[in-house]
Amino acid sequence: DADVTQTPRNRITKTGKRIMLECSQTKGHDRMYWYRQDPGLGLRLIYYSFDVKDINKGEISDGYSVSRQAQAKFSLSLESAIPNQTALYFCATSDGGQPRVGAFFGQGTRLTVV
Amino acid sequence: DAKTTQPNSMESNEEEPVHLPCNHSTISGTDYIHWYRQLPSQGPEYVIHGLTSNVNNRMASLAIAEDRKSSTLILHRATLRDAAVYYCTEVGGSEKLVFGKGTKLTVNP
To answer: What CA–CA distance (Å, rounded) separates A63 from A84?
Structure first.
């Protein structure tokens, strides 16, 4: 089983629909992140959480919300999807107490809003 | 907001060494330098990290400037499987994990 699992892997949805992307991890890490990737723009941080009670906005949080249901689960929601939210989304985890340890990424969710 | 700067793209020939640069103009004294790579159609994966000294592992080497304002990821003999986007970043205890646009490495046969 993967250390970081994202579901679904692919999703096509209509404009205005609510959609949730889920992320779960088995690393036992305290920190979790959601990134968005568009061609040529690298990885842009949407939201991050340092523990269950700590949620923070990243650089592009407008139009998104998150929920940290447990240490191992971090969900990203699009309340009313719009076409420019079509992108590849990645979840990642890291250990805040071990900055030498690398972060782990999921395989990504490809979201298309039509 | 990315704290590092990298060239957008680089090109190499197979079996030649590749030096991928990264600038860390605002790095703090306790931040680790991490490198990741993203193969086509995959999520990013950790490659190597360092603090002050040069580091080697089975994937690559990391050279860190004495003032820590720059680092270089070294692939000693590039293969076609090394074609990817490479990201450098800075990791500290209290900072969020942010990335820039990375360097897209093309390896020519």
So the answer is: 10
